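Go through this chain.

——
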Amino acid sequence: MKLVKTIGDEENAILLRVDSAAISPNKDIYIGDNGDYSIKKFDWNGKLIKKVGQRGQGPEDFGSFDSLNFFNNKIYIHDYGNSRIAVNDTDLKKFSYITTRMNRFYDVVIPINEKTFVGTYNNSRQKDKNSIQIINDKEELIKRFFNFSQLGKAKDYRKLPAKQSLISLYSLRKYIVINRKHKLLMVGFQFPNNPMKIWVYDYKGNLIRIISKKLNKEFSFAKHTRTRKIRPDKGDKFIEMNSLISYKDYVLSFISYREKIDRDVFKDKNVCLVFNIKGDYIGEFKVKDKLRYLNVTQDGYLISVNFDVRERDKVYIHKLNF
């Protein structure tokens, strides 16, 4: 994997707070910036071509950028703040909207096709603990799936003190990605157990298989995420999945083996685990930086953003060599 370019360096601080980005089929770069509520379009050389949006609820307004994906040369932006999916051509001239108020998505939303969408479900106040849903463009629910009960019983954070600072099992970041070649959906967790698991579904939400891999036995689930203390103790060793990507006939899980050395100081070993589409483990390769990979093109260009909140946001583009 080779670094090709970066956008948003110190000298030209264009980016404020990036949570979503994608590369179009013609190699323009689109970045959703929650710092000024705008979508920014760059050419392949990193030159800003167009900037659209501001905070609000009207046309060309955004409440947040939670995911950004392409399908059939159209861009789909999940705006959680306004409970809608914004749709536009690559020229960003005129937006249309699909509302999601009745069946509200939480984070990532991916178009399966132009009329069907899958994403993480905002179930925090619902009895339904299924955390992924598929809806159509009329906001009709097709299916909910991936029940947390399969992971074991979680404590009810509402009955615990200091609930505002508690990270429960139900609120951890989930990664959901799509493989269009094989028509599959894949789900993983930011803080996986050991063995690490990736759940594979078809487009209808039916479980096809579970990919499982035993990792370094010195590292385990991040137990501090189920307690009030939030932060790991000095010497704690745990696993963090930074990204989940599916590309051609492969599934890529970018993970960090993390050891707490001192206050806000970690020793990280970053690797990418590679599986084939059937779930067989192929191998791994080292990754220099801890990044969050947001999207991949059909020809293997990965777009990502840095994890460290203490650093200025940058967008990185790497090229896969397989």
User: Anything to note?
Assistant: Residues 160-171 have pLDDT under 50 and may be disordered.
